[in-house]
Amino acid sequence: MLRLFSLYLCILLTLLSFSTLAQSLNDEQIKKIGPAIWQQVNIKSPVSGAQIISAYQNKQSPLVSLSEMRGPAVAKIPLSTLNEERWFVLPQANYLDGGFAYWQDTQGIRLIADFSQGNLSQSAIIMHGQAFQLNLETNSQGVLWLYLNARHYAKPVSVTFLDEPTFIYQQFFINSLSIMSITIMLTLACMAFILYLKTGQNVALYCAGYIGLHGIGWAFAAGVFGVFYSFKSINSHYFGMYIFSFAISSASAFAYYLFNFHTVEKTRISQFLKYFSYVAFISGFINLVLPFHWVFYLAHTLAAIWVVLTLVLGFKMLSLNDFRAKYFLTGNIVYSLSLVVFILSHLNLFVTASAELWVLVALAIDCICILLSLSEWLKIKQNDYINALEQSRIDPLTKVGNRLLLQEKLNSIGHYYLIGFIDCDGMKTINDQLGHASGDKLLINVTELIKKELANLGDVYRTGGDEFICLCCASSLNELEKLADNTAKALNKAHFQLKQTWPQSGLSFGIASSSECTDYKACFTLADERMYAAKYARKNNTPTDHNTTQQI
Predict the structure, then answer these.
(1) In this predicted structure, what is the pLDDT of residue 230?
(2) Is 495 helix (H, G, I), strand (E, B) or coil?
């Protein structure tokens, strides 16, 4: 009975004193109170307003801001207003396992809001924080009691009061930008994953992990998933911190593959990226057994290391004219600046509606830049592949097409064509007497002469040591006959010009056309036979037809 009397006496004294201490909400759009307004208590789950009032009154310790603290806390905020208004109250806490608001006036004390993050029926939803309605009548006077319980308070917890128009604007601004940024990240992650499925490149997979895990983590931290589903006995807002280590691991692996460190000689920065990725990945599993405040500190330590690492890496690679770094560096500079704003806001040196929103928007911009750097990497790889493909079809000595390119042309050849089989005479003698360097010069000279004389008639390919093939196409049978005659003349001219420079050499050739054969393989065989007939005829000084080398 005595305890009950004492409780009512405390309530009465509170009502008598609040009029001189009350915060006036008259003619104001925004009012911020705190942050040193909190009394830590030992109530895990309050059952009534009287319980938290009693716990608050029984504590004699100084009021605190809750920065870097954890556990239950209660704030007492006397309020008064002259007009009937609807206000929105925003306790500035990132994570809340429990949040309750009680209103105390002359009519007693009553629960007016449950703004716990697990509550799906909140009266007001704002990303990266909590909010609830406070409806005040004309000439209202009373005390707002707030109860919070969290595993970690990341920053000083102040309480902001917004009138309805201001809150609606701020709610739209924060929620729309948050959802848009998260949607951008998840969309880009899907694009990167599709690129991985199409290309099989690890860099695309790690890019998808980098962007996607950040997007999913921020969706949990901002409360997007909590709007639609509440996990029993688990606050889903915490998941973002647990996912972050894996996101950083993917980011480090992405940078490692983006700059092709896996294919070049090991350097200190490449090794640091590699092992930092391992450490971040392992820490993600270690987090599962750590208290949340240690998970929070570890995540921010990894973030700080990552920011410094990316800036050093970006400037280093850009100094080496690696233009993939321009997007990589730009995105991380934006992200780094947002973290500066985030830290300053936590130190109350910079005022912003939502410091987390700055980081989230900057991260979305960073992810766009990351995907651009991936596209630059894929573009370089594509150009390298095209160049390698072209080089594999080009003879490195003579710079004309080789057997692979010839085969590609033959696979798509038309109905009217001719094939010239050309053999360079005296090649062995020149190699033996003058050396292989002179033999190479001879082959280069032969190629230049054939290309010069053939001009627009057709193309020449080197298919063996001293063997060449010319391939010429026509649009009709009559044109093919003329083409065969002109090709023979061109090759004969090249033969005589070669003899002037290399008397011990010459060209033996045979020509066969599609009008004589059933397919290009038969043409090859016929041209080859005619070439050897011409070579034999020259040795025996006998005449040849117009499809073979003319008599010297």
Answers:
(1) 65
(2) helix
